[in-house]
Amino acid sequence: MIAVPALLALARTGEPTGRRVGRALIIFLTPAFALGLIHGVPELDGRALQNPIAWTTFRLVLTGLALILPWCLYVWLTGRS
Question: Is the whole-model pTM more than 0.85?
Fold first, then answer.
């Protein structure tokens, strides 16, 4: 689900290859950063000692963002050109 918008951006014609590859990498790696936050921050990894409900909610928001963000970036980056 994350790779499909990156592949669509890579397959676009009418743009230089370097620009297509750069945009595809941005689309593909940005959700990995959001998911990396979940595993890198102890509170988001489920080890919060205070306010576990708030941290769990924030973790769910970041996970949803990681799934929706590639499509939003695809539309934003390809809509400008």
Answer: no
